[in-house]
Amino acid sequence: MSLAQVHYTSAAPGDEGTAGRFTAVGPGVSGALLAEIEPLLRHELPDGVADRPSDGELRSLPQSFTYAALSDGSRLVSRSAPVRDTAGGAGPGVRFHAHAVHLPPGVPLPGDRLPVEAWRSPHWVAVTPGGAIPDPLTLPPGPTAVSEGLDDFAVSRGPWLAAVLADLRRASEPTEPGGRPVVLVERQCADVARWLGLASVTLPRESAERLTFTTYTRRPGSSAARVVGVLPEDAEAARAAGLRVHVCAGQPPSARGTDDAWAATAARVWRSRSPELFREARDLPGEPFAAGPLAVTALCAGIALGPDERAAAAGWAADRPYALDAKRTGQLVEALTSPGIDDRTGPEFDAAGRLFGALEGRCPAAVTAPLAAMLVTEAVRGGNGSLELPRRDAFVGPEGAAVAERLAPEILTELSDTAGTRSVARTVQLLRVARLLGVDGTDALPEVVDRLAPALLTEAAAEGGTDTPDFAPALLELLDEQFEVRTALLGALDRIAPQDPGAVARFLERVALPFTGTQALPHLRMCAEVPGAMATLGGDRAAVWHRVLRAAGLSPFAEPLVLRTAVGLVWEDRAPTVEEARLLLDAATSDSHRVAGTWARLVDAALGAPAAAPSATGTPAGPSAASTDEAAALAHDLLRGFPGEIGGRERAGLLLLDLVRELRTGAPEPGWAETVRTLCAQAEPVEPALRERAHAALVERLLAPDRPGAELYDFVHGDDTELIAAYDRTARTETVRTRLRTQPAYAADCFTVWTAHPHAGKTWPPVAAALLDEVLRPAVRAMSAEDVAEVEATVGRTGSSGRAEAFRTWNRSSTLGRLGRRIAGRVRRG
After folding, report:
1. Given a cut of 50, is residue 143 above it in pLDDT?
2. Residue 279 in contact with residue 249, Cβ under 8 Å?
3. H helices present in 178-325, as ranges
4. With contact defined as beta carbons under 8 Å apart, do 207 and 288 qualify?
5. CA–CA gap between residue 658 and residue 652 (Å, rounded)
6. How far apart are CA 524 and CA 24, in angstroms?
7. What is the torsion angle, in degrees rounded to the nearest 10, for the CA atoms of residue 218, residue 223, residue 226 and residue 230?
């Protein structure tokens, strides 16, 4: 099939207003296509071109070789070259001539060559042929000039190779038209063509065919090509246009070119002068630009790669262990485990571990042994706790003995080190490697486990959240592999559980430790039971406690520490209520509580009980009142049960509660008010509810008709502001007011008390006067005449005739006051 050709030249002198003109157009190229083609053929000379250049200067001027996709799906391959202006005149001495070949949709170049291979073809012409246009462009057989010397060019551009190849790969993707081009800055446009030659060898053919380009332009920002070449003087304009610019004609870049593992591998292949490997790699399964196939091919050919590329090779082979034959598998393992490599990374080791797991059982042990040795060496010396370790049988034979002999002293030394801090993952890894290599660590195991057990809780808590800790999978594998470690570690956790059972329970919720065997492990079983008990029984903490205690399988009489664990699990962040504390106290002997240390929780329950609220009858009532009475009774029992353990402010607080019990139910020792003050001072900082409870019990007893006079005298003259205020509040309750109205003898007693100590300090007199006027007077006013007379008589009998007269005077002033108010009312009404 004939390919239409187009010739275009710059405007002749006198053709003002035009950049150029078509001088020959082959058949099938429409006028609409010519309008699209014309901008592609125009050639703008660099600045500073001589008016009459010599032949050498003319040959050094840039030529633009272009491959463009047209709107109708056809393509254009063209060369625009400077030529000498033979027309003379005053214009510049250089013009340009463009020669183009039009490729209809689906029609390749002769010989099915890629467009870049037509560069330097001897069939490009710099003049318009006379007469008929000759036959279409053909290419000579064999490599064309652009393919020659690509190895040398690639080596010379080593610092830029990876970054440029990465961008050329991205530029070849099937993106939408109008994307921003990649700009290659070279002093010679032929070197831009060589870059494209590198791409044509490196990229798959379909990608290379999408790579439209021009080797030279002055206006890269307006080019529709995916790759453009510019001279160094135009590089800044390309950067200003926001384009991706590679200046390959200056100082090499100091930083690594790209993070693209495929491009980095391709660059190393080119620098090794092995472009045939690209074809081999394309025969392997995988995505076109996956780094794995190319990296595997390069490593098998003996090309040294970086850690990312080696990781890609190992990962690819791990996913496809069937894709390589035995020879290449051995070559790959040998390359990955080379002793000369000193820059391996964590991801590379992880990939190598996956490769070992994929090859183990498929290949002879002699092939996989170097991988196994490398992995365990890294596990010991590199501290990589995420490695997938080989099985124990991977080290059978002399290879295993050599590795064990080399690493055993290091493992035992680190396991025995108690000075430094070692993470859980590190300890687990060392224990697993020790077993793999048959290293006997029996002597160090008890101390290792004693350090490992609390570290599990600490690291799990530090990670936070409810997800499984990072170290959990390796830990569970360790416990599954090594019975002696599992037994020792579970025993150590069971021993520390009573100290912080809540932390152990939270850990067991996140890590399902295997303790379903014959070990007793009462505390671990309790910690594992509590989440289900809480979910099932809800807020009934007493029921949860019973269920958790049953899970231990031991009686608190036989093992008192189960008390501590159960209490810590159920009441971890709070004190029990008084009722719950009574349940706990009755569930075991005082000796059991003493050993378990749970007596302190019982003390907290007693001291933290809420204050009682007075009822309408004047006696404590309701739940808080019951709690008060039970708290006082609990305090009494605790003082008897733990006399040697309870001291300091806690003992004073319990004594204060016990005094409350005696004030309400018995006859405490004399000096009530002073005892309350002393015990409150000793119990500082005393709980507000406890202080309120003690004050209330004291003043209730002082307001009782049968209180000793000496106690009342001490109270009044003690001038304690808080106690007198409590007395005032209680005296104003409805209970006392009712008793005053209905019991003349009680009203007489209160009158005597409230008038008997007019000079007792500063606090009592105004309180007593207010009670007389605001509490007693309304009560007497509401009495019948007979009851008032009985009050007066009682005051006279218990006091003196003078006190009876004082009552009459006090009562008369009240009566006169009422009479005066009545008369005043009548006058106002009149």
Report:
1. no
2. no
3. 189-202, 205-209, 235-240, 261-271, 276-282, 291-300, 307-319
4. yes
5. 10
6. 94
7. 0
Here the tokens at position 739 are: 């008793």
Average pLDDT, the chain: 85
When pLDDT is averaged across residues 691-706 and rounded to a whole number, the result is 88
- For residue 272, is pLDDT > 80? yes
Phi (first) and psi of residue 617, to 5 degrees: -95, 0
Distances (CA, A) of 199 to 78, 153, 211, 701: 19, 13, 9, 104
Q: Identify whether the C-beta of residue 621 lies closer than 8 Å to the C-beta of residue 735.
A: no
Q: Tell me the residue type at 738.
A: T
* pLDDT bucket at 618, cuts 50 / 70 / 90: very low
Report the alpha-carbon distance of residue 403 to residue 63 in Å, rounded: 63
Q: What percent of the chain has pLDDT over 70?
A: 90
CA distance 619 to 735: 8
Q: Which long-range contacts (CB under 8 A, 24 or more apart) does 659-668 make?
A: 659/694, 659/697, 660/628, 660/632, 660/693, 660/694, 660/697, 661/629, 661/632, 661/633, 661/635, 661/636, 663/697, 663/698, 663/700, 663/701, 664/629, 664/632, 664/697, 664/700, 664/701
Instruction: Choose among 559, 557, 504: nearest CA to 526.
Output: 504
User: Rounded to the nearest 5 degrees, what angle is found at the Cα of 736, between the Cα atoms of 732 and 737?
Assistant: 75
pLDDT of residue 623: 36
Residue 147 is classified by DSSP as: G
Q: Is the pLDDT of residue 827 over 50?
A: no
Q: Write down the pLDDT at residue 147.
A: 64
The CA distance from 119 to 200, in Å, is 13
Burial of 413 (0-12, 13-18, 19+ CB in 10 A): exposed
Looking at residue 207, its amino acid is S
CA 473 to chain centre: 18
Q: To which residue do tokens 């003196």 refer?
A: 800
* Alpha-carbon span 105 to 72, nearest angstrom: 8
C-alpha separations of 600 from 557, 581, 652 in Å = 18, 10, 14
Looking up tokens 């964590």, which residue turns up?
346
Answer whether residue 816 shows pLDDT above 60.
Answer: no
N- to C-terminal Cα separation, the chain: 138
620 forms beta bridges with: 614
Instruction: Give the per-residue pLDDT at 819.
Output: 35
Identify how many contiguous H helices and E strands the chain contains and give both numbers.
38, 11
Q: Residue 83 forms beta bridges with which residues?
A: 95
In the DSSP assignment, the letter for residue 363 is: B
